[in-house]
Amino acid sequence: MNTCSNAQNIVELNNIKKIYDTGGQKVEVLKNLSLSVDAGEFVAITGPSGNGKSTLLNMITGIDRPTAGEVIINGCPVHEMNENQLAAWRGENVGIIFQFFQLLPSISLLQNVVMPMEFAGKFRRKERQKRALHLLDMVGLADQANKLPGTVSGGQQQRAAIARALANDPALLIADEPTGNLDSKTAEAVFELFQDLIDDGKTMLMVTHDVEIAQKIPRIVEIRDGIIACDSIAAPEIFTKLPQESATVELERG
Fold it and tell me: In a 3-state reduction of DSSP, which class is residue 237?
């Protein structure tokens, strides 16, 4: 499946509702939420646990479907796709980075990076390993390429996961607490990789509760009770004065 039109708004969510039926009781997790993210933006998604952040990411990646509303990613109407279309679309258009890496433990770091290209049918077969090695080199793991995930550190596993997310050169990167399982020094190094990707033109949405990380991200969207409580430009000097889960300031976006 080819990439849809290259829209200025990489992410366009229009009046998204998500209602779950839990034991006969309906719970509205997202409430008419609308969000636009331009190409090249770096956006932090913050807010208390259980308020809809992960559900929001699941809407954007097509892992889950909205009860109502439109999800348009890089010009693609994701909410209209069937499961096969979604799988093909996701493989080419979205790179996902998880808190706990989710690398396949029985194959090498190199093979973990090659696999998304094989699933999506991207690049010629002989080019895939070369590209995977290039991506591992970019994240500082060229000398670890043939090791199994369990034999390298958590920080190295996350770097490999970043390389895997970049395998098919997606327009959008989604990171769900990508530094939450790392020590502060390693988290900083991983964040610097993210910043390099933004500088190279990627678009990224990152869920984080880490104040030190969040204050370095230009735009912060705070989710509370299924709505956007604040869409703001970060002001680093106030972060130490605010609770970690609401470290934002309500400033009009420039």
Answer: helix
